[in-house]
Write a structure and sequence with these properties.
Distance between the termini: 53 Å
Structural class: alpha/beta
Helix content: 25-40%
Shape: globular
Number of strands: 21
Number of helices: 20
Strand order of the largest sheet: 11-21-20-12-13-19-14-18
Strand content: 15-25%
Amino acid sequence: MIIWFVNTSHDSSITQYDTVTEKIDYVELEKFHGHKHFEIGPLNSSTYNKNHIIFKNRKDLSYPNKVFCHSLFDLSHSQDEEKSHHLDFFKNAHDHTGHFESVEFRTQSKKYAHHRLHHLSSAYQSPFKKCFIFSHDGGGDHTMSATSSFDGSNIIDYEEDRDVNSYGNLFNFIGLMSKHYISNSYDVAPMSVILDLAGKVMGLSAYGHKLARENVPEIDFYKMLMWDRKNYKAWMGKNKHLLWDRECHNINPMKQFERGTNFQSLKRKFIWSHDNEIYHSYAVQKAAEEWTLEYLSSKKIKNQIEKNDNNLIITGGNAFNVLVNEKIKNELRYNVFVPPDPGDQNISKGLCIQYMLDHGKNVKQQTQRYSTIKLRDADIFKDHFNHWQKHQSAKRIEFSDVVNILKNKKTLGVVQEHVELGPRSLGNRSILCDPSFTGAREIVNTIKNREWYRPFAPVCQMEKAQDFFISENFDHTEHMSFAFKAKEHTIKNFPSIVHVDGTARLQTVTENSNPFLYELLNHFDILLNTSFNIAGKPILNSYDEALTCLAETALDYVLVVKENKLYLFEHVDL
């Protein structure tokens, strides 16, 4: 029997469990659809009919006998017609042959709580047999933070903290305010845009050290909003207790908005200067770092982490803040693990694990970096190859040819068979280039159409990391989850992968984690590694998308690694 577990919020995902083989398959739906942060929303019925095709026509996803849906919405409060449409959507997805059960967060036990599912999914991906878990995000089940312990098989001592506010919400707010650098093309921001704002604020914050005075009162102000949701709500609703009366940042931001219920309905006007945007990005990032260190070093939390052998898992959307993660590891000296997919995409896997535990199944811990689901057009690769061989350029090559391409200052889009889990390139959907040559950053930025202030990540072999970067340790660094300080010679020799603040979001690889990329790094100390997509799109998951990028951008080559054979595609202007 096949059972599906579906997360219906933004970053929707499906986890498939085979009760015979006990195999778990998992995939993010944005990589089926090509729409970033794709959402199967129960309150968005207009998308149901056209989107259920992903369930009915996927040859590599078996038809289930059961479908479980975990919704972040309270369906009991939605209109009857909407609720009925939501249920019919999943029933129609497998031609009425299966059994459907819906898990709605207001009507079920804490076992299906949003943050608890974050904890389960992350714990079962970790190497820890015993650990403390901290989740923090923009809000699930009206809770933005929770803690628990993992005893090797289940979550215990689960506790939600309903008082604190998510610093991610403040990052989103700063992003919406920053019309020059971050969200200049939107008047009213949809959720798919809002979810990318925090990462942009983090990138822009590095330039704030040039503007920040020795005393930055906004840091304490933003921390106050993080510690107490009541303060945050008062600030958002009544414009009280603001510190916006200082020299270059003297505008009360809330007066510039037309009031609304959330970020999606805030009508933004032209507000801050360029320097304002950088300054407040810097302040909110520093506040996030200080707040998290204070929270995790508080007596209660510290005692619980110590009882769990100093092992700490960080999960939830805010776990994507690599600067915060590195601060925790270096200053608190905890053994920190961040899964490759700490955001809402891991909820369906947590739901699957909880169901298995409830039914007496033995679920094994396993770090899963890549989905086992095939590329969307995997079955017609030969057609792509033959077409490009006839009309452009496509050929079989040897490994030495790949090395020469990169040493000749060319950019290479790599497609290996299984796509990464989470939003970061881990070598299977990557654009690679040699970061030692001048202009590498600008060339890749042109290909991806990204903002100039956002950093690119380096990748190196695990055993070489300490030669180029500074950190308390380089454990659990395969997922681009930490921002390391670069050594002076690294900054000098590889400027394209070092951010303006001297940090780099490093990915390390081992011979087991990614054999192809590891072998390639035998010929390079460091490579620039960025996700194979263009701005605003998720990591691609089809040969067609890769070849379209090759045809329409400044990318030099696409390399397909398939069944240990190498296929090179080149765009030729005819």
